[in-house]
Design a protein that fits this description.
CATH superfamily of chain A: P-loop containing nucleotide triphosphate hydrolases
Order of helices and strands of chain C: EEHHEHEHEHEHHHEHEHEHEH
Order of helices and strands of chain A: EEEHEEHHHEHEHEEHHEE
CATH architecture of chain A: 3-Layer(aba) Sandwich
CATH class of the largest domain in chain C: Alpha Beta
Chains: A alpha/beta, B mainly alpha, C alpha/beta
Structural class of chain A: alpha/beta
Oligomer: heterotrimer
CATH class of chain A: Alpha Beta
Number of helices of chain C: 12
Number of domains of chain C: 3
Shape of chain A: globular
Radius of gyration of chain A: 18 Å
Shape of chain C: globular
Radius of gyration of chain C: 28 Å
Strand order of the largest sheet of chain A: 5-6-7-3-8-9
Strand order of the largest sheet of chain C: 4-3-5-6
CATH topology of the largest domain in chain C: Rossmann fold
CATH topology of chain A: Rossmann fold
Number of helices of chain A: 8
Number of strands of chain C: 10
Number of strands of chain A: 11
């Protein structure tokens, strides 16, 4: 395992020549969990995609697992935000999870016992082992999401890049997700999640608030002040007990 | 029993037609499964129609029709690539216009030439009964290529069916494999259109694989179902052409599509009878 | 206000004057346009009058009369008869399939402005019949060649013979009209296959004797219209009679039991009738090249080939070479190509007929 998970220096990311997020500095260590927090359009998905090697770096430097972009893909697991095909795909849940192992062995070697054990374990953690034979399209949204998470787990990667991983999950689903996260962290993997869920973010080691630029970066209780949240989301939020409460609207905030 | 076997035993041209149909069915089963899983029906159709001017041009120049079809397919694939990369219009519209434009161009070329009289129909509807040995050879070769490439690319192809971003994130060059898939579709169309016709080859790509997607959950099983439906449609279609004097190519495709709709109804009925179990 | 010259108009560039100037700017082109449109209408109106009265030929035929012929073979014969007495225009280039050809706007214009239209009739030129009928209702004289011919029905050209029944439900059969499946009237065949050819076989030009009859009637029609061709019609008819003799000599070499024909589509009926051949089948059993073969029809044809001892399949316009090759391969017969709808290189009808006769005889006599 390398000594760093993600190193970013004055990083600008976006699409083509259009910069969506600029000036990102990050130094993420293995075993830690980081949340990229912002509303839609803040650049958090774009940043995650750039980490995953789906978008080229526009400016600045980026290293993933100690290597340039794209060279460590077999040690990285990416979960995208949208899965359009889920509702029509007749493929079985277990085969979808197995796809996570595709690049872990050479093209010509077939699935082996180790793969099967890993796949089964991952599905059990996410509580979808009993859905193994069901076609994906027959599952509910929450069940599908857990299957995708099981696929991520099956990669046994060193860096997880998850875009809105709890979307569509119900309460038991979230519990399974948390189990999955602890499992990965106990393996020493670094986790980066992009989320707009502030509650979820506050459970991570570190939070980066994003809105076209980095508003704040650090431990959640330090960073998630009402002022910062106002700037990030355009609405004032205060933590009251377990909940976040809207306190004011920021009219001329533009995303 | 005689009515079902004798026509083939007695007539060499029917045997060749059956063999050609089997080859086309097998090739279309493999490629068609990916077309259905990836929702590429529209592009597949566009490719099938867009080859017409290539074929017409080749025939006018005295070159083999397949060569023209290959060039036409290359132009279509290139055009589709350009459109999806650059266009601000919805892809559907642009691709649709591209292939209709090429189709119209092809019709103009054929109908204004004095040499290609009657060829328009042959190109559009195929000559199932006129398959010669050279064509059978090309079809066998195409089947071989399709199978080998599919085995080679099976993992990235499966991944593409699921999520193209994931494919890229896992280190496969997603757009490269996508183009490879387009190439396979094009190759299938190019070798199959002389048998079933440019208008109908698309039916052979879609209907049998559609049945596979309804009945199976694993890619290989889908392909097997598709192959079975394709071969059965060929056999029954040729039989119908023999007994009822129907046009051969259209009978085969009609059979395949009918099988698809029968299975679709059957699956829906079964689902509603059994209720939904979660 | 500063006057500026914009083209021919002087424009005053002041806001107040703007609207007024716009109207002024529009007025002149509008006037020119209106005058132009009126002029166009008068011109059109004028020309349509002139084609209306062709019956009084002397007063309206200006310069050389114009005769429009639909297709090439008929055109060659008409040219021979007419000579310099009129302008003969042939619509379809030699090589286009008359069954499928569609007229362009220019072609339709030629038809409406003609003094005489010569067509084959019996729906050979299916896609142009409407335009011809339209022209006829506007007063253009129309000559249908097949009106002057002894029309053969679909499927004629041979005597009946029994053949093996190969399958239970037969819609379609060989050229021979008597088939041993019951409950199918003769007329039904024609209607099923050629909604275009329900009245009879249009391919009369394969018999020079019929062509001679047409030529004589054509001569009469021309003189009725005041087009003087002297004795060219009679001379042409005589040449055609000689042609008939020559053909007889050529086909003499074919023994009687070999005089059976299988063609691409049903186009040799008149030839067969005249020279005592029998058309026993066609790859596309219809009078038009537009239909397609099915496995059932091919299998039946193969049965006929075997039953009759046919040695050659004659392909022609619209026959798929691949399908015929497959059938020939299977049945063990030769394939010979015939030109039944196109003129040969020298463009004469005589060569056309002689080529046809010698190709057929050559293939069958061996």
């Amino acid at each position: 395992m390398s000594t760093t998970a993600v190193v970013a220096r004055r990083l600008s990311v976006g699409y083509g020549s259009r910069v969506v997020l600029a000036g990102v500095e990050a130094f993420l260590k293995p075993g830690g969990s980081t949340a990229l927090v912002g509303s839609n359009g803040s650049g958090k998905s774009t940043l995650l995609k750039t980490f995953a090697g789906l978008l080229p770096v526009i400016d600045g430097g980026l290293e993933i697992l100690g290597k340039p972009i794209g060279e460590s893909s077999h040690r990285v697991a990416y979960l995208s935000q949208f899965h359009q095909s889920g509702f029509v795909l007749p493929l079985r849940a277990i085969d979808v999870v197995r796809m996570g192992r595709f690049d872990q062995r050479s093209r010509w070697s077939r699935r082996n016992r180790e793969d099967d054990v890993i796949v089964r374990e991952s599905m059990e953690i996410l509580k979808v082992a009993d859905l193994a034979d069901r076609p994906l399209r027959d599952l509910s949204g929450g069940q599908q999401q857990r299957v995708y998470l099981a696929q991520v787990l099956a990669r046994r990667s060193d860096l997880l890049l998850l875009d809105e991983p709890t979307a569509g999950l119900d309460v038991p689903g979230r519990a399974a997700y948390i189990d999955a996260l602890s499992f990965e962290r106990s393996r020493g993997a670094a986790i980066v999640t992009a989320t707009h869920d502030v509650g979820e973010a506050s459970m991570c080691d570190r939070v980066m608030l994003l809105a076209g630029r980095v508003i704040a970066d650090g431990p959640p209780n330090v960073v998630m002040t009402p002022e910062n949240l106002l700037e990030t989301f355009g609405i004032g939020l205060t933590k009251v007990g377990d909940q976040l409460v809207v306190t004011e609207h920021h009219h001329d905030h533009d995303h | 029993m005689n009515h079902f076997i004798d026509p083939f035993l007695d007539n060499g041209f029917l045997q060749r037609a059956l063999f050609a149909g089997v080859l086309v069915s097998l090739t279309c089963a493999v490629v068609g499964t990916y077309v259905v899983l990836r929702g590429m029906a529209f592009i597949g159709d566009a490719l099938a129609h867009g080859v017409l001017p290539g074929v017409a041009g080749a025939l006018l120049m005295g070159l083999p029709a397949m060569l023209g079809a290959a060039v036409g397919a290359a132009v279509m694939v290139g055009g589709i690539g350009l459109i999806t990369a650059k266009s601000k219009l919805s892809n559907d519209t642009a691709i649709g216009l591209l292939f209709i434009g090429l189709l119209a161009l092809g019709v103009v070329m054929v109908s204004s030439s004095t040499e290609l009289t009657g060829d328009l129909e042959a190109i559009l509807f195929g000559q199932f009964l006129g398959v010669n040995h050279a064509e059978l050879l090309m079809q066998s070769l195409a089947l071989l290529i399709v199978v080998i490439v599919t085995i080679f690319a099976s993992r990235p192809f499966s991944l593409l069916c699921f999520d193209s971003d994931l494919t890229q994130a896992m280190g496969y060059q997603a757009h490269w494999y996508h183009r490879l898939m387009l190439f396979l579709i094009a190759a299938t169309v190019v070798v199959s259109f002389q048998t079933v016709g440019a208008l109908l080859v698309f039916g052979m790509l879609l209907a049998p694989a559609g049945v596979g997607a309804l009945l199976a959950r694993r890619i290989v099983t889908m392909m097997l179902w598709a192959a079975a439906v394709g071969v059965m449609s060929t056999y029954l279609g040729l039989l119908a052409s023999y007994h009822f004097s129907w046009a051969a190519g259209a009978s085969v495709v009609l059979t395949a599509v009918t099988i698809f709709f029968v299975v679709l109804v059957g699956v829906s009925v079964k689902k509603s009878l059994l209720g939904s179990r979660s | 206000m500063v006057p500026k010259k914009v083209g021919e108009c002087v424009v005053f560039s002041n806001e107040n004057d703007y609207h007024f100037d716009m109207r002024q700017n529009h007025a002149r082109p509008l006037a020119i346009f209106s005058v132009g449109v009126l002029a166009l209408f008068t011109a059109c109106g004028g020309s349509s009058d002139s084609t209306g009265s062709t019956d009084s030929a002397d007063s309206t035929v200006v310069g050389r009369p114009s005769i429009v012929v639909t297709y090439s073979i008929l055109g060659a014969v008409v040219s021979e008869v007419v000579g310099d007495a009129a302008d003969v225009k042939i619509l379809m280039p030699n090589g286009i399939d008359p069954h499928e050809w569609e007229p362009s706007a220019k072609d339709i214009e030629a038809l409406t402005n003609a003094d005489l239209i010569v067509s084959n009739g019996l729906d050979l030129e299916g896609n142009v019949m409407e335009a011809i009928e339209e022209a006829e209702s506007n007063g253009v004289a129309v000559f249908h060649a097949t009106d002057h011919v002894e029309v053969i029905e679909f499927g004629a050209g041979g005597h009946d013979h029994a053949e093996e029944e190969t399958h239970a439900e037969d819609e379609v059969v060989t050229a021979d009209s008597v088939v041993n499946t019951e409950a199918k009237a003769e007329d039904e065949h024609g209607d099923e296959h050629g909604d275009e050819h329900s009245d009879g076989d249009p391919h009369f030009w394969t018999s020079p004797v019929e062509m001679a009859a047409v030529v004589i009637s054509l001569g009469e029609a021309l003189s009725d219209l005041g087009i003087d061709v002297g004795d060219r019609a009679a001379m042409a008819a005589e040449r055609l009679t000689n042609l008939d003799q020559e053909v007889n000599k050529i086909v003499e070499t074919v023994p009687a039991d070999q005089r059976i024909l299988i063609t691409g589509h049903e186009s040799l009926g008149y030839f067969a009738h005249q020279y005592e051949f029998e058309v026993v089948g066609a790859v596309i059993p219809s009078l038009s090249s537009e239909s397609e073969a099915s496995a059932g029809e091919l299998a039946e044809l193969k049965a006929v080939i075997e039953a009759e001892g046919v040695t050659v399949i004659f392909t022609e316009l619209g026959t798929s070479p691949d399908v015929v090759a497959a059938l020939a391969d299977d049945a063990g017969v030769d394939v010979v190509e015939l030109s039944t709808h196109f003129l040969p290189e020298d463009g004469t009808y005589a060569s056309f007929v002689l080529d046809l006769a010698s190709t057929i005889s050559g293939a069958l006599a061996s």
